Amino acid sequence: MGEPVTCTCRRAATAAIDALDTAYSHTREGATALDECTALATAAHWQGQAATLMRQSLNMLIAQADTIGQRARIILANLREDTQ
After folding, report:
1. d(CA 84, CA 51)
2. CA separation for the pair 31, 67 (Å, rounded)
3. How far apart are CA 80 and CA 84, in angstroms?
């Protein structure tokens, strides 16, 4: 005869629980990988934003330097006119 029904059910239940545990483990690994990808994307996004802000600051400094240079040339030209 075959094995008792309870043994077959127990084995099937154990296999189902093992399969669920494996699926849960894979899901957790997938979630961890997704968290890492999100962290990397966020870091890259913030790095990109930081680079943009740094570039904007640099552009402002360049514009200020140009303005200061223009004023200095005007002052120098005025001084030359005054000394001639």
Report:
1. 49
2. 53
3. 6
Would you write out the chain's pLDDT as a tens digit for each of its 84 residues? Answer: 566 656 777 778 778 787 877 888 788 887 787 788 777 777 777 776 777 888 888 888 888 888 888 888 888 888 777 766
How is the chain split into domains, by residue range?
Answer: 5-82
Taking CA atoms, 1 is separated from 10, 11, 28, 42, 61, in Å, by 18, 18, 43, 62, 90
Q: With the CA atoms of 24, 30, 33 and 34 taken in that order, what torsion angle do they form, in degrees rounded to the nearest 10?
A: -120
Q: How far is the C-alpha of 52 from the C-alpha of 69, rounded, in Å? A: 25
Tokens of 56: 């904007």
